[in-house]
Amino acid sequence: MKVLQTDKDKSKEEYLLLLSAFQRLIETYGNSAEKWETVEGIITLRASFLIERVIDGLSIDFNKALSLLKNHNDFTTEQERLQREILVTAIDNLVDFAASQEQQMLEDLPDELDNNHTEQYETVFEKYNLGYASQENQDVLYAAGVAAWWITVQEETLVTFMTQGDDRVRDWHLSLEGLSFLKRDFPSDLIPPIEWGCRCYLISDGFGSVYGSTKSTDQAMKVNPVFRESLATGGKIFSEMHPYFQIERIKPIQVIADRIKQKFHLL
């Protein structure tokens, strides 16, 4: 079970759409009503790009995802029920994430914007919406792909932690190679990704699993707290330990986040 992370070009294309909206924000910054309308557009776009990766990771299309979200109880299969749980958890987390990200971006801008300094403002915007976003997008796609695999595995199956085995693998990730548990006992904080850019993966009933099952789990203490939960087991992709979630969300941003969630039938 491996999930490819090859959407950097896609992130650049998305950034250009976001940048266009940001340029409108600069023009309307002095008008409170127009400003927040434009901010809502930016947050909606950013959230939609993240959510699209969850849907891609689950290997379903948007219409199927929307149908699952609308359906609360009547599922054809157990897999559909689990897919809906993943979607609800992920969308709730990622809408909040996008809202907090853009609030942080706004807080890094001056209180008043001058059209003569647009390049300075765009540098701030790019940091969040291309620099950081490119990696965030990949990690969301990866987490969703792992979750899609996880729900197909039986509870009594032996699951083993594996690395890509190349020179990019971090030493402490390599120290976990072969670590195995029955799925029902597998530590959620060791389900990849376990930090930014993690490419580790899981296999079921693979060679060397019994050997791995005797290893210590002390290394779990090194897991980036941002990734201490796992979408695969019902947790967030980005935990409350992420710096974005450490700032108090202002009311206009919270209202925007709630409106977006309503569109996805979460509220």
Tell me about this structure:
The protein is mostly helical and 267 residues long. The protein contains eight helices and three strands. It has a three-stranded antiparallel beta sheet with strand order 2-1-3. The longest helix is centred in the middle third of the chain and has 33 residues, at 118-150.
Q: What's the multimeric state?
A: single chain
Number of separate strands: 3
Decide which structural class fits the backbone. Answer: mainly alpha
Q: Kindly report how far apart the N and C termini lie.
A: 34 Å
Keywords for this structure?
disordered N terminus, 3 strands, 267 residues, single chain, 8 helices, globular, mainly alpha, three-stranded antiparallel sheet
Quick structural summary:
The protein is mostly helical and 267 residues long. 52% of the residues lie in helices and 4% in strands.
Write the layout of secondary structure elements.
Blueprint: H1 8-28, H2 32-57, H3 62-70, H4 78-107, H5 118-150, E1 158-162, H6 171-174, E2 180-182, E3 201-204, H7 209-212, H8 251-263
Antiparallel strand pairs: 1-2, 1-3
